[in-house]
Design brief:
138 residues; alpha+beta; two-stranded antiparallel sheet; 3 helices; 4 strands; 53% helix
């Protein structure tokens, strides 16, 4: 027979952690346009570096493929280059999660509700079942 794990955390620590998470969620949502702009600039610089790399190494290219589109007068040229990944420019990654408005509102509401309930309680500790419900926000 297995026994469940009993965890009791001080309520004030849980409230403090939830308040901190709420501040982070609000800050990330309000700054996501700035983060996206910064990412797009970094990605444009990455594309330029990658293009410069490909042009500089065109003499190593093989398996050329061309496709001329007469309707818009475009010539598409594809080729392969054998390189080590370490030689390539590093692609920037998004360091944040893009949050939609409805997800943001839902998350803020749930954290706020949890904070309201925890502030009203007379209990000094939070039990495991309550922690399971709010752990996804911490």
């Amino acid at each position: 027979m297995t026994r469940g794990i009993t965890v009791k955390l001080p309520t004030h620590k849980v409230v403090t952690a939830l308040e901190a998470k709420l501040v982070i969620v609000k800050k990330n949502y309000s700054n996501q346009e700035a983060y996206e702009t910064k990412y797009q600039k970094a990605y444009a610089a990455y594309q330029k570096e990658l293009t410069d790399f490909a042009i500089a190494n065109v003499k190593k290219a093989f398996n050329f493929r061309t496709n001329y589109r007469a309707w818009n007068n475009q010539l598409n040229i594809d080729y392969d280059i054998t390189v080590d990944e370490k030689d390539l420019p590093v692609c920037p990654e998004r360091e944040w999660e893009n949050i939609s408005l409805h997800t943001y509102k839902e998350t803020v509401e749930e954290i706020s509700n949890a904070l309201s309930i925890l502030r009203m309680t007379d209990e000094l500790t939070v039990n495991a079942s309550t922690m399971k419900q709010i752990a996804k926000y911490l």
